[in-house]
Structure formats: C-alpha cells, structure tokens
Design goal:
globular, 5 helices, 4 strands, binds iron/sulfur cluster, alpha/beta
Length: 158
C-alpha cells in the first residue's frame, strides 16, 4: 500500500502515547521505570551497565550519564535492557505501575504490547550510525514523559 512497516509502527506508538496521556495517570516516583536500550551506551565503553546502570562512571561520552542524573533528580527507577527478554525480566522484578521506554520502532511496538496493561510512553531513538550502535535520544522527551506520569501540570505531548 506504499506505507512502510516502520511508519505503521510509528503510528501505533504515537497512538499509544496519546491514549496513555489521555488517561491522566498519577504515579509515585518509585513506581515509575525508565527503560533504555543498550545501544545508547557508547560502543567502546567497557563498563557493564545492564545489571546496574549506576555502574556508569559518568565520563559523558554517551547519554547514559545524563539518564543516571535524570533518574536521581526525579527518584525514578532506571534500567538498561539488551532485548525483549531482559526487558520483560526487568519489568517483572521492578513491578512498575508505568514505564517510559526508549527503543526502536520494532522493539517498542512489541514492548508496549508485552507490557500491557502497564501504561508505556514510548520515545523512539535516533540511529545516526545505523541500527543498534551508538544510538541517540532526545532526553527532554524522556523528561517530559516522566513529568507527565509524576503529575506535572499541562506539559505538551512529545
Ligand atoms: S557515560 Fe557511562 S556508559 Fe557512557 S561511555 Fe561514559 S562511563 Fe560508559
């Protein structure tokens, strides 16, 4: 039909985010989980952050440092997953009431469905170096989603 699979997935994620935001959730910080993909970590960094993101030494070469600071600032949980299986395990272990997830279209689409009925706001990553390596994300979009779940007034949707 001339519409790429990726575009359909983007539309699904946009619709999901819109529906989640229309429900006026109010979540306690300790019940909110930020879930990041491993490909955001600098490819050359040898520090293992999948078990505990706070192992990051904060060198600033990638955005992991900023995400650790963000989670400290709002006192929300944060974790890094290498794929869907680990993401599911992290969700079972942390039992969040809401999730702010960063991922590509494919992982996000399945992740939102797998997490149901937990509400997820999905932020797509950017892939200037191709898929799965040194990916980027606009941290302000993640902050915006955190503030929405925590009940900050009238934030515009991202
Ligand atoms: S900010 Fe953290 S995760 Fe990123 S390269 Fe530096 S030490 Fe590694």
């Amino acid at each position: 039909m001339g519409v790429s699979k990726e575009r359909v997935q983007q539309s699904f994620i946009e619709l999901n985010n819109h529906l989640v935001r229309s429900n006026n959730h109010r979540i306690r910080p300790d019940k909110l989980l930020i879930l990041l993909p491993h490909c955001i970590q600098d490819f050359d960094c040898s520090i293992k952050i999948t078990g505990n993101i706070k192992n990051c030494k904060g060198c600033g070469k990638c955005k992991i440092k900023d995400f650790v600071e963000l989670s400290d600032q709002y006192q929300v949980k944060i974790a890094v997953a290498t794929g869907g299986t680990l993401a599911r395990r992290i969700i079972v272990k942390n039992r969040p009431e809401a999730i702010v997830a960063v991922a590509c279209e494919l992982d996000m689409t399945s992740g939102i469905q797998d997490s149901y009925p937990i509400p997820v706001i999905g932020i797509l990553n950017e892939r200037p170096n191709g898929p799965c390596i040194n990916t980027k994300v606009d941290i302000e979009k993640v902050r915006n989603a955190i503030l929405y779940f925590l009940g900050a007034p009238s934030l515009p949707a991202v």
